[in-house]
Design brief:
3-stranded mixed sheet, 3-stranded antiparallel sheet, single chain, elongated, 8 strands, about 20% strand, about 140 residues, 3 helices
């Protein structure tokens, strides 16, 4: 029995999840499924131009695993483009950030805020208004469950 996939860290789910050739009815063409982790690998490596080592760290996988994810994604995208198939983005072994973390410039305090509560007005420790939200790659302890 193969080892289960380790979840890949994905910044956010894609806004657009379906692409198809124009002017061809959906019922007459095939479909290729691109996993969300493959989409994220393409985004950080190819679109952002991030070095492979940094991209692997962002997804929290090894460099060889990132290479396999990218190879799979490139093959699926090429199949959709060359053979005129629709491309659907969904599923796969991924996880979204589990928290938003903020940092105070004044006292260097870090704290978590739940999603959907808006930006905090001040630091809970020193009441300073000089804060910033940390990028997902800067958050410590956001490990896979």
């Amino acid at each position: 029995m193969p080892r289960p996939y380790k979840r890949r860290f994905v910044r956010a789910e894609p806004n657009i999840t379906y692409y198809k050739p124009r002017g061809i009815p959906i019922g007459t063409i095939g479909e290729v499924v691109l996993n969300v982790d493959e989409f994220e690998a393409i985004r950080v490596k190819d679109l952002e131009g991030m070095p492979q080592k940094d991209a692997a760290q962002r997804l929290k996988v090894s460099q060889p695993t990132l290479h396999r994810i990218l190879k799979s994604a490139h093959t699926k995208i090429a199949e959709a483009l060359v053979n005129g198939k629709a491309l659907r983005i969904e599923g796969g072994p991924y996880q979204l950030p589990s928290k938003r973390q903020f940092w105070c410039f004044t006292c260097q305090h870090r704290w978590d805020e739940p999603f959907g509560t808006g930006r905090p007005k001040h630091c809970p420790r020193c009441e300073s208004h000089y804060l910033r939200r940390l990028a997902p790659s800067e958050i410590e302890g956001d490990e896979e469950t």
